[in-house]
Design the sequence.
């Protein structure tokens, strides 16, 4: 009789716990379903149809995918934009994250004003990307922009070029703007990772006679691997979804001469229409979005797996 | 190996003065233990010798040469950290040979030295393992091996056994003592555990609040502590203290009155107290006797009631209250026929007791 009581109390406790879990998980699950899974499913569905403006026509199977990947005209634009995204990823890895790593190493030594610098470096991150892009578009204006005025003021007139107007400078300029906007984030992540490394490791290496460079390279860097994984994957996702900065600074066409065209801009032009792409084409646009998602998803998983395998437990 | 000398060493962190005018000599081949309660500055002092902290003033010499301006690696010291500080991404062999790799030693030399150290520490079969795959005791041995491979002038140990369980600690204590004998090295060892200090040291330095309280051989500190702090810190369980009054001072010594009417004359040459001063009488738990059972004598006694008995097999600890004297601990043999609630008389011998003046200094 008593054991039955225990059993019913235990069952009631388990039921209550499950109810609580369900209650706590429901809002997040609803948000995910409504704003992530349904749009993803819709995009996949749209990509299988022919569209005329906002009107869905007949089912075409994988024809939209085939057009994007193998039609010579579309394919050329696609791979040009993709190549630009690759350039963005590689450059941001070197410039933005490399700079962040150096700053984190310096800040980890607790210099005077450490807190102040930490806040200052992070400030651009909290600004809206649209505002940052617009502000830098003004700074880089060839006539009244701050950058060229400063260059002229210090006697570098020959360097004062229309940064966003030349095919060879437009993309580098935008990438620098991105680096300025975001470098505070990897700096903080790297700094947190360095602070996680027990000081005993560094002190032991100093007693072993290792130089600061050697300590950074052989002790700190390998032990920062988890932070590197996060930053590489986030930079990859960000680079292949790059949209706001090129859109605000040089418009939807990836001008000048397609030098700043990105997969994100191409998707937007295709799906919603533009001067060059003509009217909106949800079918091809959705197919492009699905391809981008698959590429980013698969690569991110592979990169995470590879990078995680390099990580070492601290203890 | 080498002699270490500290002269007038001070360390301040901002306005906090943590090491105060330390003068100390560690002789060649000596095993010296810095001991003291948490926050007494013992680890800071070790770090100052290692060069991981800079001294504010004073001088540190190792092997006759001033080193306080040198980088840690150039002082000829090797340190074993409390956390072991083994690089988790290196194997045991790579950890042990790191200093030699940094010094661009020949690969064959590194290999030979690592193997030699591994042999001494019985680590040969673990050389290819990562620290994660080792037990606490093995990691500790790797950390010691890393120090041995460098062939330093002085070994520094910062509470190296505190992360180990009780059994392993005893084992490692014995191993470290053996290692000291084998290497014939100068070793400085920091611990808060006075058992480690007593069992391993040639010389103990007792620190409190950044100052040296007493320096001496373990048994000197145990038998003739300079002050109440050292008397209470060295010995486990700690010495019992009884507040009393100096009734009179004569050539024969200080006549002390304890609460409850116990009176005795404590023999001493330089009393340093006057009649009426408050004094403290100290007796170690193992120096009490009950009914002639124990190490104490019959120069005086206190009556008390037993409120707890701890029987450890070979020995028994009694906890008593006697008037306002609370929590008196007495050590008896394992089979002492005493029970909770018994009223007992605990006797003491003056020859094995201690008296401290109002300033806490020992009266001898």
Sequence:
């Amino acid at each position: 009789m008593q054991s039955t009581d225990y059993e019913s109390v235990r069952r009631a406790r388990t039921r209550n716990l499950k109810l609580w879990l369900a209650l706590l998980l429901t809002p997040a699950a609803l948000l995910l379903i409504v704003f992530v899974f349904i749009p993803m499913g819709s995009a996949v569905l749209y990509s299988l149809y022919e569209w005329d403006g906002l009107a869905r026509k007949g089912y075409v199977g994988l024809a939209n995918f085939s057009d994007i990947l193998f039609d010579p005209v579309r394919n050329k634009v696609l791979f040009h934009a993709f190549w630009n995204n690759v350039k963005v990823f590689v450059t941001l890895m070197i410039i933005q994250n490399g700079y962040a790593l150096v700053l984190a190493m310096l800040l980890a030594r607790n210099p005077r004003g450490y807190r102040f610098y930490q806040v200052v470096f992070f400030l651009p991150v909290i600004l809206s990307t649209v505002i940052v892009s617009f502000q830098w578009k003004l700074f880089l204006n060839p006539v009244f922009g701050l950058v060229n005025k400063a260059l002229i003021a210090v006697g570098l007139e020959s360097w004062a070029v229309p940064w966003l107007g030349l095919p060879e400078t437009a993309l580098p300029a935008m990438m620098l703007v991105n680096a300025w906007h975001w470098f505070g984030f990897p700096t903080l992540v790297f700094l947190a990772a360095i602070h996680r490394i027990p000081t005993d490791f560094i002190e032991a290496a100093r007693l072993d006679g290792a130089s600061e460079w050697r300590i950074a390279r052989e002790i700190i860097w390998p032990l920062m691997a988890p932070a590197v994984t996060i930053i590489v994957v986030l930079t990859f996702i960000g680079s292949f979804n790059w949209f706001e900065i090129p859109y605000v600074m040089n418009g939807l066409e990836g001008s000048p001469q397609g030098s700043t065209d990105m997969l994100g801009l191409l998707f937007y032009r295709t799906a919603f229409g533009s001067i060059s792409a003509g009217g909106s084409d949800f079918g091809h646009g959705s197919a492009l979005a699905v391809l981008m998602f698959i590429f980013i998803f698969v690569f991110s998983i592979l990169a995470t797996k590879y990078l995680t395998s390099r990580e070492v437990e601290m203890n | 190996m080498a002699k270490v000398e500290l002269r007038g060493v001070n360390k301040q962190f901002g306005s906090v003065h943590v090491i105060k005018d330390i003068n100390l000599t560690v002789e060649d081949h000596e095993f010296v233990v810095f001991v003291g309660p948490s926050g007494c500055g013992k680890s800071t002092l070790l770090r100052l010798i290692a060069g991981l902290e800079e001294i504010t003033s004073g001088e540190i010499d190792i092997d006759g040469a001033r080193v306080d301006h040198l980088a840690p690696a150039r002082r000829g010291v090797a340190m074993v950290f409390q956390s072991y500080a083994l690089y988790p991404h290196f194997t045991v062999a790579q950890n042990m040979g790191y200093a030699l790799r940094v010094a661009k030693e020949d690969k064959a030399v590194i290999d030979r030295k690592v193997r030699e150290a591994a042999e001494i520490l019985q680590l040969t079969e673990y050389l290819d393992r990562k620290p994660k795959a080792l037990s606490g005791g093995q990691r500790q041995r790797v950390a010691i091996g890393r120090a041995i491979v460098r062939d330093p002038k002085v070994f520094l140990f910062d509470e190296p056994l505190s992360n180990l369980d009780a059994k392993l600690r005893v084992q490692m204590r014995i191993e470290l003592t053996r290692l000291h004998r084998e290497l014939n090295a100068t070793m400085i060892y920091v611990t808060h555990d006075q058992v480690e200090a007593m069992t391993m040291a040639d010389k103990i330095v007792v620190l409190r609040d950044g100052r040296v309280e007493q320096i001496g051989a373990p048994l000197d500190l145990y038998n003739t502590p300079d002050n109440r702090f050292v008397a209470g810190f060295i010995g486990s369980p700690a010495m019992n203290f009884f507040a009393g009054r100096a009734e009179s001072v004569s050539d024969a010594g200080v006549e002390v009155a304890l609460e409850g009417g116990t009176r005795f004359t404590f023999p001493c040459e330089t009393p340093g107290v006057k009649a009426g001063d408050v004094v403290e009488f100290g007796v170690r738990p193992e120096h009490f006797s009950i009914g002639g059972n124990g190490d104490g004598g019959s120069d005086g006694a206190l009556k008390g009631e037993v409120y707890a008995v701890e029987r450890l097999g070979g020995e028994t600890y009694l906890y008593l209250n006697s008037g306002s004297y609370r929590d008196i601990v007495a050590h008896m043999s394992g089979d002492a026929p005493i029970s909770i609630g018994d009223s007992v008389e605990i006797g003491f011998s003056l020859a094995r007791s201690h008296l401290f003046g109002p300033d806490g200094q020992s009266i001898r």
